[in-house]
TrEMBL record:
Annotated protein name in UniProt: Integral membrane protein
Residue stretches spanning the membrane: 6-25, 32-55, 67-87, 94-112
Alphabetized UniProt keyword annotations: Membrane, Transmembrane, Transmembrane helix
Taxonomic path: Bacteria, Bacillati, Actinomycetota, Actinomycetes, Propionibacteriales
Length: 116
């Protein structure tokens, strides 16, 4: 069975590609894109909660502080990208959303590496 982290990384990379198409077509983020981001954010919240519970429950994690910080950073990056892309409705601000999605995928990947 696929783990939540693996599904999240795949979905975030797919989101990066979709937003790249939006940039190529010179489109700003629409309600569909924001809905997908909202669903991903809920999954990221579930990942953060389960990760923090594992740290508190004495799971063997290489660096617990770094692990928790990566999870919390993954929660913050996408909403910041959305706020930026809504504040500035240019093509470049939509590209910021692609960077935010890719960065979030990296943060989730790094948390997997720390989890061991």
């Amino acid at each position: 069975m696929l783990e939540l982290q693996t599904v999240l990384i795949g979905a975030l990379l797919l989101l990066t590609l979709v937003v790249g198409v939006y940039v190529a077509l010179d489109r700003g983020p629409d309600r569909f894109l924001l809905g997908v981001i909202g669903v991903l954010e809920v999954a990221l919240l579930a990942l953060a909660v389960t990760g923090i519970v594992q740290v508190v429950g004495d799971a063997e994690i290489v660096s617990p502080a770094a692990f928790v910080l990566y999870l919390l950073a993954a929660l913050v990056v996408l909403p910041l990208g959305v706020m930026w892309s809504w504040a500035d409705r240019s093509r470049g601000s939509t590209a910021v959303l692609a960077v935010a999605a890719f960065t979030t995928a990296f943060l989730v990947l790094r948390s997997i590496q720390l989890h061991g």
